[in-house]
Structures are given as C-alpha cells and as structure tokens.
Amino acid sequence: MHILSPQLSKEHSLPLYVQLYEQIKHDIINKSLPVGSKLPSIRDLSKHLRISRNTVETAYQQLLAEGYITSRPKSGMYVKELELDVLQQETKPFPYQHTKNTPILDGPEIDFEYGSIDMNAFPMKLWKKYSNQAYKQEMEEAKSYGHHKGENHLRREIARYLYHARGVRCSAEQIIITSGTQHSLNLLCETVFKNCDQFAIENPGYDRARYIFENHRFMVTPISLDEDGLCTDDLRNSNAKIVYVTPSHQYPCGMVMPFKRRLELLQWAGETNGYIIEDDYDGEFRYEGRPIPALKELDQHDKIIYLGTFSKMLLPSLRISYIVLPPRLLQSYSAAFEAYIPTVPRVIQNTLYYFMRDGEWDRHVRRMRLLYQKKHSVLVNALTKHLEEAAEIVGEKAGLHLLIKVNSQLGEQALIEMAAAAGVRVYSIEKYRIQQSTDGKPLLLLGFSKMPIDQIEDGIKRLKEAWFA
Known about the structure:
elongated, aminotransferase, 7-stranded mixed sheet, WH-like_DNA-bd_sf, 14 helices, alpha/beta, Aspartate Aminotransferase, domain 2
C-alpha cells in the first residue's frame, strides 16, 4: 500500500476533496502510483492527512466514477490499468501543491488536552531538595515496605490540609494512601464493596471509574444529569446502594452540585443505607467565589467515602492519591486493608511530607490556582470573542477544562477532524457516555492546564476558521 502525502490547503480556492482528487489523479497519470497500487483506506488516509473521512470518500468516489481506480470487495481501492499513451505525460509538480517554504499550518499544533499539568509551574528545585532528604532518610533507616495505609506523618499532613482547604474533618487513621484514583477504587471494590453487586454512576461520567466497576463484574447503572448534577430522583428509582459522584466539578460536564442537591443525595444515602463515593479530583479550582467545600463536610452519618488526588497539582506520574474512609468502615475492614502492601514508594511519600510540612504545598496550591485562573479567563474570553453565538460554553465555573456546545449540523467527529486539519486538537466526550445523548448539538472538551497561555486565543481563532469560515 502506498502512503499518500498530498499537501492540501484550506486557503486554496478549490475544496479539499477536489485538491485530493486532483493530486491522486496526477500521480496515477504520471505513474507515481503504479497500476495495481492499493490506496490507503478512507479511515487511514483521513487520519494521516487530518481531514474528515467525508473529504477522502468524496475524492475516492470521483476517481472511481472517472475510472482511475477500482474497488475490490473486502479488499480496498486499487489503481486501474489505463491507456495512458494517448495522454501527453508530464512530470510537472501538481499546480496546487505547496512549496517547501509554504507550511500548511501557521504555527505549532495547539492541543486542548485534559489531564496534564503545566510543567513549567512544577517546583522542580524544591521537589529535588526534599527528594534528596527522603532518599537520605531511606538509606539510613532501611525500613521494610512501610505502613499498609501509608506513612503516618504524611497522613497527618493530608488530614490537616483537608480540614483547612476542603472542610473535611478526619483523622490520619481514616486515610489510606494509594497510587491513583483507579487504585483507590480497586482497593474499595476488593474490600469494602466485595459483596456488592450494583453501582450507580453519573452519565456521562468518569470512564475509568466505570471500567473498574465493570471489571469487578458489578452492574453499572447510569444516572442522568441536569443543571445541578446527578438526578437524585433517578437515583432513587434505581436499585443501587452505592453511587460514584463528582459534586464539586462534575466530570466531564462541569456543573457544581448546589447545596440543596447535596442534601438530597445525603438523604438518599440515609434512606437506603447506601454509600456515596465522592471523587474530589479538582475541587481546589473554582473561578467564581471561594472553593466550595467538599460534600464530605456535610456527612454527619458516615455515608461518604472521600477520594482525593495530588495529580492535578503535582506530576501525575508521581501517582499519589488517597481514600478517606468513614470510621465505621475502617473498623469493619481494617483487617482486609492490612493484607495490602502500600503501592506508593515511601521515598515519594516522605518527599511529599516534607513539601507539605514546610508550607510549600499551600504556597504551590495558591500559585497554581492563580495560574489556572488566568488561563481559564483567557480561554473563556477568547471563546466569547471569536465564537460568540456559534458555541455555548458549558461548565466553566471550576476545574481545568470546559465544554463547548457547537451550533453546527456536523457531528463531533467531523468537527474534531476539521480542527485537527487546522492544527488544533479538541476532544469528544463520547467515551464518558454510557447512553447516547438525545441533544443533537455536538459537545467538545477543551482542557487548558498544560497549554501555554499565549497559544489559547490562537487555538480558538483556528477553530473559528476551521468550522465557520
């Protein structure tokens, strides 16, 4: 199979499919594509050129209609044998082709990826300083694996932080250090929820949580959302006794669960003797008023299992998260947790402990909140300025991403491909849906945490040109 690399330009007067058709035809006539050559599949070529599948399919259909290629069932497209002697064959470059000095994209690729951090903001010197202290301590003490819940002094620091920053009252004994949210959920499924059979989860919701529950053979019941988050009426109509929620900033839709809905959720837990798993994955980031306290703050009857992470502030690769268990569950399942060896190296735990003990964590949180607030403001202003009524911003009051609902007849995938052709990566929320949405407008996710602030507006300008020019 020949790899086609035609150079296409959205700025040219000819449509992209005509440019592609002309260049393939030119290569066939000049025998750059020999008789019998297999063309790339529509999917592979659209991905390679970062254009929509419709563009490739239309170009191929035109070549088929004019007899330059043939389609073999279950095999693909091939160059046909033609009577080319009657044509005056030339090897001139294709007239619409760019020269080497004319780039297709004006500037670097702009990636609105979610889940990474701004590496320039990571306090590498301080982290290295505390890491050296932790390694020195490790070599001197040469302990075994450490406490199965994690190092006690780190858990005390986390309990202090949670009380002051998130309104969560807990002791170090209630905290278990884990190597990521998925590990937290795995551990819960193998201990506390070992004999359960059904979980409720937001729809759309965090896909990796769903995978954990499904891999443990639990029935997963999708619960719909409204403007206040998870619909408690739908939760009551389910048979689930455990619900996984992201109330401080619903993932991925971004709404913040208001006080009334939080009370309704707690009431459900009391009435059903159920449990709430609260994933407070980026609760520190709120851009209107003060950060909202965690749902756990309202828990008077030990019904909430709280999950937290350091990944949104520090390097995700450090893999440090934690569980806050209600006292009653800790007492019931303490023996089960003792069977598990801690998965976060003690050196990393102690590095984080020194970082928190000396007040650097609190200072780092303030710096990151200010940095991400600036990026968030630039993004919202750029969307308002350049897309105006062409796109509605969804879930922009907190967190490290937002959604845009695009006023377009095209589907999500087509818009993503058109954006990619303009050098911009945006993302679908399809994988977060358990059931398909009935809203016809495409919904796309834009993360901004890792993106340089001076690229944000350029990225939105490119989206406008790609989708509405």
